[in-house]
Structure formats: C-alpha cells, structure tokens
Amino acid sequence: MTDCLLRIEELSVAFHTPEGTARAVDRVSFSLNRGETLGVVGESGCGKSVTSLSILGLIPSPPGTIESGCIRFEDRNLLELDPEALRRMRGRDISMIFQEPMTSLNPVIAVGRQVAEPLMVHQGLSRSAALTQAGEWLDRVKIPAARRRLEDYPHQLSGGMRQRVMIAMAMVCRPKLLIADEPTTALDVSIQAQILSLMMDLKNEMGMSLLLITHNLGVVAQTASRVVVMYAGQVVEEASAPDLFDRPFHPYTQGLLRSMPRLGARRSGGVARLKEIPGIVPAITETIAGCRFAPRCPHAFEHCRAQAPDLFSVSDGQRARCWLRHFPERRRTDA
Ligand SMILES: Nc1ncnc2c1ncn2[C@@H]1O[C@H](COP(=O)(O)OP(=O)(O)O)[C@@H](O)[C@H]1O
Ligand code: SF4
Ligand SMILES: [Mg+2]
Predict the structure, then answer these.
(1) Is residue 168 part of a domain?
(2) Fewer CB within a 10 Å sphere, N or C end of the chain?
C-alpha cells in the first residue's frame, strides 16, 4: 500500500461567465500522504477553494467546469465517479469544514440530529445509538454540558461552538481525509487557536490526513508538515514547512512571509491583501504571457514577462515557479 492518500494531477477548472472565462485553477498538482497535514496558502481568489471543492465534486456547474486533470483518492479517480458514489464518500471517507459553519449547518434541525445524521446514513446506526454517539462527540469537541445541547439549534450557539459542531459532524464517521477551508478565519482571535488545536488533536488521535486551506501562513506554521503556495490559479511553490519558512524561494512566498499576520490576526475588510506586495492578484480572465506574478514582483526582468516559468526543482523536496532558479544573478538584493 502506498503512503499517498490523495493525488491531484494537472487539475484545471474554469468558470464560464458573461464577463469571460476565468481559469480559476490551472494545471494544479499536489499530493497528500496518509496522516500528513498539507497546507495550501495564497491570497483570496488564488483558487484554493475551487481546488478543494473539485475533490468532492462540489464545483457549481454551470458556470464551473473541470476541464482536465485527475484526482486520485486511494485507487479511484474521483473525477470519474458518478454523483451518487461521490455523495456516499462525503462524510464517510472525506469530510469538509468550511469557514462559515452556517453554510453547512441546517438552521431548523437540532445540532444533535445533525451530528448523528452521518452515522445513520453511512453506518446504519439507529437514531438513538447515533444520538448517543453525537452526544459523546459534542463532549469530545469540548462543548460544555454537551448532552444538554443536543436539542439546541445552530442559532443558539456562538460562532466558536458552531465550528465545534461542524468539526464533530465532519469527524464522526472517522474519515481518512479532512479538508478544512479557512476553518478559523471567521472566528474571534481568541477562539482561533483553540479551534485549530482541537482540530489537530482529533486529527492526530484518528490518524487522518488534513488538507488545510488558509490565507494565513501563521495557521500553516502551527499545523502543516508540507505547504503548497498558490497564486492566480497556479501552484507557485511547494516545500516542507521548515524549508518554506527558512528559505522560501519564490518572491510571492517571500512577500507572504514578510506580511505574515500573527496567528489569529483578523483580515481587514474581509479581503486578504498583502501590504508588503503592492498590487493585486490579476483577474484570471486576463491572458498573461509570462509569469503571472511579474506585475507585482520586485525581481521581474524581461524574460519573466515573455515566457511563463515552469515549476522548477530548487532543492530536494522544494519546487518554485520562478525564473530565478535559472537566472540567480537577477535576484535583487535590495528588494
Ligand atoms: N461560482 C463562481 N463563478 C464564477 N467564478 C468563480 C466562482 N467561484 C470561483 N470563481 C473564480 O475562481 C477564482 C478562485 O476562487 P477561489 O478558489 O474561491 O479562491 P480562494 O479560495 O483562493 O480565495 C475566483 O477569483 C473567481 O475568478
Ligand atoms: S519568474 Fe520573474 S517575475 Fe515571476 S516570480 Fe520569478 S522573478 Fe518574479
Ligand atoms: Mg476560499
């Protein structure tokens, strides 16, 4: 049995809108080993959520289409499964936690029943057996007086408590893979670290793999063993977490690190922006000839604007999509 649980190969996703075609994800590849935590980072709009939604067949279509690629989970290509087979995997083999718990929680169903539901659907438990386990899970995710809260509705809980319910719902069937998309972004600073450490404790206890998507490198520093950096729909750097923090290669990664908010710092205005890298992520409807980061890159030279770089190997286990790999003398020391 291979160590690899999930392998995304050359995934491309486009959205066809009246304004044009947005190539939201462009030939993205990465893999995740069993038990591993992989962080996917990048500013808002870089294609992180679209990548993760593709795994479970959750891209809204129209306007979205998966144009090409392969998403191998164990021995199956998820892109070839029919919707029913994917639905059976959701919550059982692969679970997702989103930024906003209210998008996943049903406002008119008591939280106990919502946590119990996957057990009834996937494991055929009776309602009372499932509710008993749901109570245990609410306790496990440290909801005070858990069993008394089974009858509560989501609006009766705080944001942090709702996120704990989501974690319980996601983990109750012990999936092999948990995908957490900005799991702490909507929470108060004081709660973020608690939720993150709860998630990591449960993940380690159950030996599951975690794909952690965030714009916040502080969150990645606390959790991930490997990191994929995305920019404008592409992977621009991939490295072990220690390498990424010690010797980031790509100018975008370097900018992200310089602007790294302390863990828990809230985004201003709801948009993750880099003060240290002027400019914004280009609209992916634009056709860009060379490197997509060139308009914002302090090291850009003529070759960068003419030809798009590949993801080059820069050291053992580290790759970067940057011409500086082959033109190191072009790296400016004053930037
Ligand atoms: N429902 C949609 N309709 C049209 N375009 C979309 C839709 N969802 C995402 N996109 C496009 O995909 C890009 C990447 O989005 P997303 O993956 O959500 O970014 P991230 O999660 O990194 O913030 C967006 O900038 C947008 O162009
Ligand atoms: S390829 Fe050129 S423009 Fe792109 S990140 Fe590297 S140095 Fe900057
Ligand atoms: Mg997102």
Answers:
(1) no
(2) N
User: Quick check: CB of 248 below 6 Å from ligand 2?
Assistant: no
CB atoms within 10 A of CB 138: 25
- Ligand index nearest the alpha carbon of residue 303: 2
Name the residue at shortest CA distance from atom 19 of ligand 1. 45
Return the ligand 1 atom nearest residue 285 CA: 27
Task: Say whether 218 sits in a helix, a strand or coil.
Answer: helix
Q: Which pairing describes strands 209-214 and 37-41: parallel, antiparallel, or unpaired? A: parallel
User: CA 287, CA 81: separation in Å to the nearest integer?
Assistant: 32
pTM of this structure: 0.93
Question: Is residue 246 a part of any domain in this protein?
Answer: yes
- Tabulate helix, strand, coil % of the chain (nearest 5): 35, 25, 40
Are the C-beta atoms of residues 73 and 177 closer than 8 Å to each other?
Answer: yes
Q: What is the total count of domains within the chain? A: 1
- The residue segments making up the domain with residue 200 are 4-93+175-330
Ligand 1 geometric centre to CA of 50 (Å): 6
Ligand number with the minimum distance to the CA of 59: 1
- Whether 114 is covered by a domain: the verdict is no
Q: How far, in Å, from the CA of 211 to the mean position of ligand 1?
A: 18
- Residue 190 in any domain: the answer is yes
